[in-house]
Amino acid sequence: MSTLATLAWRFTLLSFVAVGGVTSVLPEVHRVVVDVHHWLTDAQFTQLFAISQAAPGPNMLLVTLIGWQVAGLPGALVATAAMCAPCCTLSYFVARVWQRFRGAPWRRAVEAGVAPITVALVLATGWVLMKGATTGWPAYAISIVTAGLVLSTRINPLWLFAAAALLGLSGVV
Amino acid sequence: MLVEERRWLTPQEFTDVFSLCNFLPGPNVVNVSIVVGARFQGVRGSLVAFAGLLTLPLIAILTLAVLYDRFGQLPGIDAVLRGVGAAAAGLISATGIRMAAPLAGMPRALVFLLITFVAIAILRWPLIPVLLALAPLSVLAAAWAQRR
Question: What interface predicted TM-score (ipTM) does this complex get?
Answer without folding.
Answer: 0.87
